[in-house]
Amino acid sequence: MTAAASTSEDPGLWKTLTARPAVLVALVVFGAILAAAILAPWIAPADPARMSVRARLSPPLGDYIFGADAFGRDVLSRLLFAGRVSLSIGLGVAVLSTALGIVIGLAAGFFRRLDAPLSRLIDAMMAFPDILLAIALVAILGGSAANVVLALSIVYTPRIARIVRAATLVIRELPYVEAARALGSSNLSIMVWHVLPNIVSPITVQATFIFAYAMLAEAGLSFLGVGVDPSIPTWGTMVNEGRQYIDQALYLILFPGIAISLAVLSLQLIGDGLRDALDPRLAKDV
Predict the structure, then answer these.
(1) DSSP string covering 43-89, please?
(2) Which of 48, 50, 148, 177 is deepest in the core (most CB within 10 A)?
């Protein structure tokens, strides 16, 4: 059922995504950002850590295309390398929170005894504002890229877990699951081969949104000075470093701010497109 359906629907999914102009533009923009980050070591015009006192706060369009920061470092080079870190953190959070959310959601939805305690845990975690919970966790774990990924993964795991639990509660009562149970399949086998493949679509959509949320949250944590080590360039740390020079060098926060906005907005649009394409009830004629 699932393998044949997914194979036949792949062309339709791609066609639906590319048929919507906003989603197509978002795919192109995010693809360009991703390519620039991956190719940063080869396309960056200078070493992002190299300082030049004489070039301090040089304006854009001179010797430095995007200008130089307060230490004379090339802003464009730092922007490219910062993108690698910001995108890596966002992807890491999306993958880890999805994995944890699937495990918790499947357990809560499939095993009736675990449903109540795990559901209360999910509700309790979602009661806290994301950024406040992230700040508290980073303060406990310490400021590093790995700890930021872990903290944000804990924050966003309930989003996936809630979706997986709701879908599992419905699927576990369907006839083909009952048939698999009657044939002697184990609970683990049923969850892996019969439940999980049928909830991939909502998980994929939510993971895309979490990717965007995580990048925005990381930028917020870095701006507040409780995120990644300041010596590691991220878009958030670049905004934090440039805010004290906003009166004389607005470009120091303008360029990383634009990068954050474009990446997050494009991911949100891609997520919206995936949701409409994967859910027939939301599909629209374009």
Answers:
(1) H-SS-TT---GGGTTPPTTSSSTT-B-TTS-BHHHHHHHHHHHHHHH
(2) 148
- Amino acid in the structure at residue 153: S
pLDDT digits (tens, 9 = 90+) for 19-31: 778 889 999 999 9
pTM of the model: 0.87
How far apart are the two ends of the chain, measured CA to CA in Å? 29
Contact 164, 102 (CB under 8 A): yes
Question: According to the 3-state scheme, what is the secondary structure of 33-47?
Answer: HHHHHHCHHHHCCCC
Per-residue pLDDT tens for 51-79?
A: 888 888 888 887 788 988 888 899 999 99
Angle (CA) 158 165 217, round 5°: 20
The one-letter amino acid code at 41 reads P
